[in-house]
């Protein structure tokens, strides 16, 4: 299945280039899941396509169709849950020695190296960030369904 979302500003799709231009985004779906990478096209172009650099979460403010917005949010929720499961799996299966390793050795003579997080701290911090995002996505979905 393919969904086309029009009139999306370049700043929602790219990090640096094309910020002031408008694009049509083609979203490919397979079994209800968004297939990466997404591509966009300039309106009235000769079929020149650009790979979208940003995550599709950045499209949400520019999508007015409730069904498409719901589909995007549901995919964000699924992705967040998969990420949380992966972090939990890694935290539960890694040895305590692996989790205690820091990315760089800590040097007591240099105070800044004492701030280097361990692998376990990084995984836990990343998982907490994804959990906050998941709560935000679930709230967005509740508000979207409530506003119908």
Description:
The chain is an alpha+beta fold and 148 residues long. Helices cover 42% and strands 17% of the residues. It contains 3 helices and 5 strands, in the order βββββααα. Strands 1, 2, 3, 4 and 5 form a 5-stranded antiparallel β-sheet that branches. The chain is elongated and about 60 Å long.
- Fraction of residues in helices? 40-55%
Unreliable stretches covering 5 or more consecutive residues: none
Structural class by sheet pairing and helices? alpha+beta
Note the overall shape: elongated
| DSSP, total strands | 5
Radius of gyration: 20 Å
- In N-to-C order, the SSE pattern is EEEEEHHH
Report the end-to-end length measured between terminal Cα atoms: 24 Å
Number of alpha- plus pi-helical segments: 3
**Main pleated sheet:** 5 strands, antiparallel
- Tell me the β content: 15-25%
Mean pLDDT: 88
């Amino acid at each position: 299945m393919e969904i086309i979302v029009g009139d999306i500003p370049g700043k929602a799709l790219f990090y640096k280039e094309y910020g002031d231009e408008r694009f049509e985004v083609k979203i490919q779906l397979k079994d209800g899941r968004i297939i990466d990478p997404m591509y966009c096209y300039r309106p009235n172009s000769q079929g020149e396509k650009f790979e979208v650099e940003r995550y599709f979460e950045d499209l949400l403010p520019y999508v007015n169709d409730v069904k498409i917005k719901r589909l995007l949010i549901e995919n964000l929720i699924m992705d967040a849950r998969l990420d949380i499961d992966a972090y939990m799996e890694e935290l539960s299966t890694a040895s305590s020695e692996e989790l205690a390793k820091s990315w760089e050795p800590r040097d007591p003579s240099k105070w800044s190296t004492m701030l280097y997080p361990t692998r376990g701290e990084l995984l836990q911090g990343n998982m907490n960030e994804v959990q906050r995002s998941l709560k935000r996505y679930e709230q967005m979905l509740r508000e979207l369904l409530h506003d119908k």
